Amino acid sequence: MLVAGCGGGGGGKPSGPPLTKQAYQAKLQSISADIAKSIGKTSSSGKIPKADVDKLVKAFHTFADRLREVNPPAAVKDLHARLITAMQDLGDEFPDIADKLNNSGKDASAAISALFGAHAIQELIKLGNDFKAKGYNLNLNG
Fold first, then answer.
1. pLDDT (tens digit per residue) in 56-115
2. What is the CA radius of gyration of the chain?
3. Contact 139, 3 (CB under 8 A)
4. Strand ranges (DSSP E) for 48-129?
5. What is the pTM of this model?
6. Which of left, alpha, beta for 105 (phi over 0: left; psi -120 to 50: alpha)?
């Protein structure tokens, strides 16, 4: 669920009737794949350069914007709203997360703490479980 893309700002309102469960899952997977493609390659140097941080922040915000355009099934409307907020929050929190990751060096526990200590990451994990409990498999790996 951490994958996202380019754009940012705004985001439309849903149009049309709520999607079916299958259409909703497919739509979110499609958005995730589009955004993953727009990110392209990022550095694999072990540090997250500012350009990649900026690209990912924009991606997370765009993901939230694109989610705002989706009319979810009634059964997951509240979860969908939480997902939008969590992706927006992840975009807002990511520069701090990246700083902590960059400063963790080779200390794996510090890196894990930086990731899993972030509010947005915790919320995304909860959301994944909550969607799963309702029988939804979002599989947002891009």
1. 999 999 999 999 999 999 999 999 999 999 999 999 999 999 999 999 888 889 888 888
2. 15
3. no
4. none
5. 0.84
6. left
